[in-house]
Structure formats: C-alpha cells, structure tokens
Write a structure and sequence with these properties.
The protein is an alpha/beta fold. The chain contains 13 helices and 14 strands. 38% of the residues lie in helices and 18% in strands. Bound molecules: 2-phosphoglycolic acid and zinc ion.
Length: 433
C-alpha cells in the first residue's frame, strides 16, 4: 500500500471561464502522489449554499480570492498535513470542524471544495487508478445521460430571457458518444437558425447561443425547430430540458417575467409551465419555483405528469437534510449535485445517498463559472449518478468535460453501458382510487 499521508497542501489563484479569480488546491502525499482541483463558481446561487469567499472591495470587482487561498496555505494545510488522503470522510469532517460556521463562511466553500476534491485526486493517483474507477470500487458503471444547453438565458445572459437554460437530452441515443453527436447537430442547427434570423450574437456564459428572443416561448419554438432541422423526432429521440432557475426572478410567491412584462403568482407560474409541458416535448424541468416557495414546488410536482423529471437545484443545494424535507413534502423527484454548494465531497455524497434511498434520481452538475477541471465527470460516473449537466456544446471548459466522458466510454469498450432515458427522475404515480 502506498503511503498516502499528506505531506504538503498548497493553493494558488487561477482564473475561471468568466475571467474571474478562483482557487486551485494541490495535495502532496508521502508516496509522491499529487492531486489537484479547482473550485468552480455559480452565478445563480441558492441562498443556502456554502459561502464562496471573496475579498470584496474595488479591485477585480471584489471577486479576488486571496483570503480563500491564504486559508488553504495556512490553517487548512496545518490541520490536514499528516492526515491520510484516502480518508475522505475524516478530511471533510476536519474541514468542517476547522471552519466551524456550518456554511464554510470563515474558510470559504471555494477553499474547502478545492482541497476536498484535490485529496480525492491524490488518493486515486496513489492507487494508480482513474478517478471514476477509484470511486466505483469495483461496481460496474454507466455513462451518464448528458443534459446540454442550446440557448443560455437568465443570469447567464444578462437576463435577456427569463428562463436560464434551454437544454436538450437524447433519450433515443444508444451511447454517450451518440448523444453528443446528436446534440452537436442540434446545437449547429440552432446556430444556423439564429443566423437566418439575423440574431446570432455569440454565446452566453455556458456556451449556449445568446438568446435573442422576444418571449420565452419563442425560444422553446426555436429549440423544437432546431431539433427537427437536425433530423430528430422531438421528444422520442431528442427532448427538451429546462432550468427555470425561478429563484432568480421570484420571491415570496411573486414571479416577474421581465421579458414578457408579466407578474405571476405561484399558481400562475405552475399553470404556465404545465402548459409548456403540454405544448413542447419537455422531459425535465429544474427549479420550476423559487427556493422560498416549497409548497408550490410540491404542488407543481404533484400536478405534473409523473414521467416529468422535476429537479431541485437552488431548492435543495445538494443538501441531504433539505432533500429529506422535500421528499416528505413530495417536492421534486431529482436532485442536482454540485460539490461547491456544500463545500466538501462527503456532504455532496451524503445528499446523493439520501436521494437514492428515497427514490430520487440525480444529476451531477458543473457551475456557470468553470475551468479545465473535470472532476464532476468522474463523480457522475464513479458515484453512478446517471446524468451529467455541464453547460453547452461550446467553450473548452465545457468540452473538456464532455470529452473526458467520451474517453471513459472508449476505455470501457464493450463493457460500456449508457444510462440513457432510464436515468431520468420520475414521480411514482399515485395509486389508483
Ligand atoms: P450557476 O447556474 O452555476 O450560475 O449557479 C447553474 C444552474 O443553475 O444549474
Ligand atoms: Zn439550476
């Protein structure tokens, strides 16, 4: 057994896909194995996420991370040096105890998540295994169903449209590679369609086409048009997934659709979304209601077709306790898993364990601020989560992740299995009578 005692931990400031500072951590062990990871950053964050520690002030728009980097290089390094990099639970518990705020407000969730993930990489490297296989511990794995953005919106596109993500997923594809190829065609045709309208203005934060539409529904129509022009049967082969990100435009049961100059109450929004589900081939809806509107979230889940995937992101923030509460109320049937929402891998994994036990599906997700770090791909495969969301089909911080999964599928060869539509979350239909 290689000696995985941690001998050194360092952090540095690197830059993310929005050109903003972020934290990279590096963990060295006695056997020479080294692990490295970079914290991502969200733009439409849930209020109960781990705190992303920023310097504030004028320089770099207040976004610098010198305090978070210093926390790794001093306190965190002192505390974790001498610990075993393979003991993820103990490492993450030590990070939590050291922080002592409950939400990483003191050390910074960006500092702790980078260290937590870097330790995992060190452990896998020491074992001489690719990360996904190290995590799978001998269990057979499936390639995840990818959820890929075609048009960006909401906080990722200057609020040009209200809805944040207009995505596709390919329930008809037989492999991960095929799902990517189909998506590439849809993405290309969506771009051509924008061009033909004189409305191709580049891409939004996650690489989706800039959403130059006059209504949210127009974007949905364009998406169906792109699927058809690409030669696919909407719904059966290529379906729509939406991230409404309703916490970004709704509070206290009032929702303001800026683009359409409309204000809706919770039931008004539910009605609108259910109408879209009837009119368009929608297979998945994320955050249909705001995080402070749990009763309406549950009402939407009950009213929707039991075959519709209803995803909690800002609503659940990868938190096991919130997931249990939601399950008790019958809200959502799928959880989005973002390690930096909690600040450690252990807590993120605990949420996934709770979700699985309660019959929820899962989607491992990147953030809108990303880097070349591809850890989320290994988590989706190694933890057997079944679905992966990392943004669009452009920009290398996104493509690095899709390409990483492609390599894994190729490496598995004839043993490769694709999760496909079976990974989608569903609400058990209420018993008849
Ligand atoms: P964020 O958005 O990374 O900007 O928070 C992603 C999402 O809402 O899924
Ligand atoms: Zn979301």
């Amino acid at each position: 057994m290689p000696d995985t005692t941690i001998t050194q931990i360092t952090a540095r400031r690197v830059w993310d896909s929005r050109g903003r500072p972020t934290v990279e951590a590096e963990v060295h062990s006695a056997c020479g194995a080294v692990g490295r990871a970079i914290a991502p950053a969200g733009a439409s964050r849930g209020s109960r996420e781990a705190i992303d520690l920023r310097d504030g002030g004028e320089r770099l728009g207040g976004m610098d991370v010198s305090r978070a980097v210093a926390n790794v290089n001093s306190e965190i390094a002192r505390r974790l040096t001498g610990m075993d990099a393979t003991r993820q639970l103990e490492i993450d518990q030590a990070l939590n105890a050291l922080d002592a705020t409950g939400n990483k407000a003191r050390l910074g969730g960006n500092a702790t998540v980078a260290v937590s993930m870097a330790c995992l990489h060190t452990a896998a490297n020491a074992a001489g295994e690719p990360l996904w296989r190290y995590l799978a511990q001998g269990e057979s794995v499936r390639l995840p169903l990818p959820e890929i953005q075609i048009f960006g919106g909401g906080a990722h596109a200057g609020r040009r449209v209200d809805i944040q993500d207009f995505m596709v997923l390919c329930p008809g594809a037989r492999s991960f590679a095929q799902a990517l190829e189909w998506t590439a065609e849809v993405y290309r045709h969506a771009g051509l369609l924008m061009q033909s309208r004189g409305a191709r203005f580049g891409v939004a934060d996650e690489g989706g086409w800039w959403p130059a539409f006059d209504s949210n529904e127009e974007a949905l129509e364009a998406l169906v048009g792109a699927i058809e022009r690409a030669g696919f049967v909407p719904g059966d082969e290529v379906a729509i997934a939406l991230d409404i990100a309703a916490s970004d435009f709704g509070r206290a049961g009032r929702y303001t659709l800026g683009l359409e100059r409309r204000e809706l109450d919770s039931d008004g929004l539910i009605e609108l979304l259910l109408r879209w589900c009837e009119k368009f081939p929608i297979a998945s809806i994320e955050d249909p209601l705001a995080e402070d509107d749990p009763d309406a979230f549950a009402r939407f889940t009950r009213a929707a077709d039991p075959g519709l995937q209803v995803v909690g992101d800002d609503f659940l923030v990868s938190d096991a306790a919130l997931l249990r509460q939601a399950a008790a109320a019958g809200a959502a049937n799928t959880v989005l898993l973002k390690p930096n929402q909690r600040g450690t891998l252990t807590e993120t994994r605990q949420c996934w364990d709770a979700a699985r036990a309660l019959g929820y599906a899962g989607i491992v997700s990147a953030r809108s601020g990303e880097t070349e770090d591809t850890t989320v791909v290994d988590l989706a495969i190694g933890w057997q989560v079944g679905q992966l969301k990392v943004g669009s089909f452009a920009r290398s911080e996104r493509m690095a992740k899709w390409n990483a999964a492609l390599r894994i599928e190729e490496r598995l060869g004839s043993r490769a299995r694709f999760a496909g539509a079976s990974a989608l979350g569903r609400t058990r239909a209420a018993p008849a009578g």
